[in-house]
Amino acid sequence: MKLGRNPVALGAALLVAAIALFVILQPDDSGEADGPIVTNSATGESEAKPAKKKSKPKSPAVPTVIVRNGAPVDGVLGIEADQGDEITFRVESDIEEEIHVHGFDISEDVSAGGAATLSFPATITGIFEVELEYSGVPVAELQVSP
Question: In the CATH scheme, what architecture does the domain 64-145 have?
Fold first, then answer.
């Protein structure tokens, strides 16, 4: 007996295979994978990441001077602002001191191991020194433009 090729049987087999693949590969509606799928390229493993929630935009970080052994660690901080802006900066210190903003005549005490945040409106223009008042060490330079 000679085995012949039956095009109808072959078509039916291909159709059954296509339907089976469709059912097997269709997405899971269980709700377990709400976010994108992340694949680790090193291992080839995939995992579902939860969908990210929309968050409020972060406010800009407050410029910070870190004082160690009576001096600013990264040198004098430059702060630029326009007249009318709100100026805010922070000083973290390992010594007890007074932070003084010349020209504005604003000062704030900082304890050893503590921090002080200064915030004030830029009401006048010019270049102003911010210093550790007792030791006379500059920690910031404030430039306010018209």
Answer: Sandwich (2.60)
